[in-house]
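Bench log, entry 3. Co-assembly request; chain sequences pasted below exactly as received.
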Amino acid sequence: MLESSKFNFLVDQHKNRIYNYALYMLRNRLDAEDITQEVMIRTWQNINKFNFNSARAWIMRTTHNLCIDYLRKNRLSFQREMPIDNEKENYLEDKSNEGNPALVANKNIIDAEIKSAIENLPEKYKCAFVLYELQGFKYKEISKILDVPLNTVKVNLLRARKHLQKELKFYANEQLK
Amino acid sequence: MRTNNLNNIKPELIDKIISAAYGDASFIERMIVNWKASRNDEVRKVLEGYKATANSVHSIRNGKLPEYVIESVRRRIEFENESENLISKIYFALFTKPIYTAAVVGIFVLAIISMFIFRQPAAIHKYSKAEIELAQRQLGESIAIVNKVFNKAEQKLDKEIINDRVSKQLNKGLNLVNEYLIGG
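Structure output for the full assembly:
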């Protein structure tokens, strides 16, 4: 009984976080869904081995490890070709620019470009960047999740930002105009 | 001194600009970067460029996990959501938020403290003089019985066991050896 409540709570808290991280890492919806399912099943299997405080880091570490394993296994084999396609959903969901389709369209184009630029970051930079900027983890937590020293996290994050800036220079200049 | 080829800005300053733009620089670093940006056009351009990217990055909306994925997981682990009982609900209501946990711990501590404060002292039984005397007499009698048993055992050991069973047999043995040696 307690296990199921704990599991429900953890799933509600972390499902989107796991899914989005896998989506950025694998660049494919179906693969991200598979990874999310696998993480949840492992969470269920290990539900009594961690407490609430350590669950967040444990879950993200499992997600990261599964993504890395998946990428290694599938690097040479056939990859499912189905890019992330959130934009249609976002277009429908976006209420902030409801009165101005041009603004919505522009925002969606920029979002898509940024997502694409993040997906194309080198793997080690991408992990740190996604966890810090998009998932709101702290340096220390990222260091635990990725199993790398704290300074490596900081350096990789800085390099990711520089890399991204180069890729998005055009859009950044557009926004400034 | 090393400088950035494109902007003639020192790499250390670039790092600070990036941190300031993404909002994780310290207050002093931000002040320094802003001050330098106000005096130097190139610094200002770089800062604004990074700020624009940072804003775009931070405004990205995360995708939502389709519900069928959760349903599929639940089916796979044969999870029965309806079986949640009242105790587990209360437990999670109490322990999932630190404030509730603190309140519960506080109540426990209060209960323990009040138990110590208000507890009744245990009644101590006082023995009468006659009871004490009786106990002393019984103790004396017990010791006398034990003493008697020990004395009896000592006498038996001295007279019967050592004298008859040990000394006599030993002497017999020694005599036999003597005879054998003298005879040989």
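Chain B has a mean pLDDT of 83. The two ends of chain B are 116 Å apart (CA to CA).
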